[in-house]
Amino acid sequence: xxxxxxxxxxxxxxxxxxxxxxxxxxxxxxxxxxxxxxxxxxxxxxxxxxxxxxxxxxxxxxxxxxxxxxxxxxxxxxxxxxxxxxxxxxxxxxxxxxxxxxxxxxxxxxxxxxxxxxxxxxxxxxxxxxxxxxxxxxxxxxxxxxxxxxxxxxxxxxxxxxxxxxxxxxxxxxxxxxxxxxxxxxxxxxxxxxxxxxxxxxxxxxxxxxxxxxxxxxxxxxxxxxxxxxxxxxxxxxxxxxxxxxxxxxxxxxxxxxxxxxxxxxxxxxxxxxxxxxxxxxxxxxxxxxxxxxxxxxxxxxxxxxxxxxxxxxxxxxxxxxxxxxxxxxxxxxxxxxxxxxxxxxxxxxxxxxxxxxxxxxxxxxxxxxxxxxxxxxxxxxxxxxxxxxxxxxxxxxxxxxxxxxxxxxxxxxxxxxxxxxxxxxxxxxxxxxxxxxxxxxxxxxxxxxxxxxxxxxxxxxxxxxxxxxxxxxxxxxxxxxxxxxxxxxxxxxxxxxxxxxxxxx
Length: 506
What we know:
Elements: H1 3-14, E1 18-20, E2 32-33, H2 34-50, E3 55-59, H3 65-76, E4 79-82, H4 89-99, E5 102-106, H5 108-114, E6 120-124, H6 125-130, E7 151-156, E8 166-170, H7 171-181, E9 192-195, H8 202-214, E10 217-220, H9 226-236, E11 240-243, H10 245-258, E12 267-271, H11 277-286, E13 291-298, E14 303-308, H12 310-318, H13 322-326, E15 333-334, E16 338-343, E17 356-362, E18 368-369, E19 373-374, E20 382-390, E21 396-401, E22 406-408, E23 411-413, H14 415-422, E24 428-438, E25 442-451, H15 460-470, E26 479-482, H16 496-502
Parallel strand pairs: 3-4, 3-5, 5-6, 9-10, 9-11, 11-12, 12-13, 25-26
Antiparallel strand pairs: 1-2, 7-8, 13-14, 14-15, 16-17, 17-20, 18-19, 20-21, 22-23, 24-25
């Protein structure tokens, strides 16, 4: 299958339904029905073929140009490559130059930043909407590549522990994910999804494809702000949303500050970063009609591989069992069609409760990088390089990257399991654990803790003792600092390397 099959199926069923944009058109807003989206994608495909572009580079905030670019690239046979418009000029130009020969679809300011690059033809989003074909003949309906192994999307990984790589997602990977997650044309005409995740994240690609396949209107929020998000949900009576945990935290804080609850929201999926059980409980109160889904996934697997679903959220939130309550912070269980294994360094599966490296396998798993090829083993398994463990009931707990392992006197310590304990303290809002140099042990754990109340931090010795009781003495932070906030990137990933650099002095 090609991604265009998803668009054409919903266009045939609901061509006049609004696919993208607000209910009423305002200054600068773009609205597209499914038929208009299909027509603009066909016109863009003609332009891509005429200029012999092998890739479509998108450099733009969330807007109607996104699905036009995504499906137009798929129609032409070019690869869709969204890039981070927040990069410096040099970094942005370098990534765009590597994509040549390409057509770049950009905002007006970014067009100026990319001007003059060899092999890069530039069109602004405004000009594209006015003339998607650019003088070329639109592609014929059905005239798209049918090879499921053709490259559909290229995405730069987050690079939180090293230089970013370019993940290759083929049509069969993405369609396998969407068809396994979403029922075709299942959305009602009143349903709307607020899209606030950056376009260059796999969650944005997965959300666009999933919402189109379901027939659900997409409402973009160009720049995330908690109050703006709340106002947009209320204005549009939005029913669905996808968020990273840092967004969810800010939305819940804003709702409680405003003394409001959002009742139109029926479904909230959140992921791309770690979750805090306390925040989830508050979110359940602030969005009382919503079914919550905590998703764990990765770019190389076309997005989600594990989900903690709405039923588990309600059951664990209402439980008096501390084990169930803690599971609100778990990643849930593997999706149907995806296998997940936690393994020792020698590749053997670990016992329940033991930490190891997470491996995944399934039709949606690509495990491929541009320039270095497919990284699957002979049996189709992909090493995520994430640490985790399964509990006795099969719930997955993700504990960070294996690069983050702290080696204390020859003993490997997982930062994630120490953070889990710190986050159970009622006065702790957020926590990060990382390794710092030690003259005695080589390396030892240090914790940075964000107090729930800035004016009243918990006792540091009490927090260390909490870790000693729950785990053992070697895992108790040797150093503990209270901070106002922790460093995250714009897709919700904790940047431990920044903390290590800041506190590197023994």
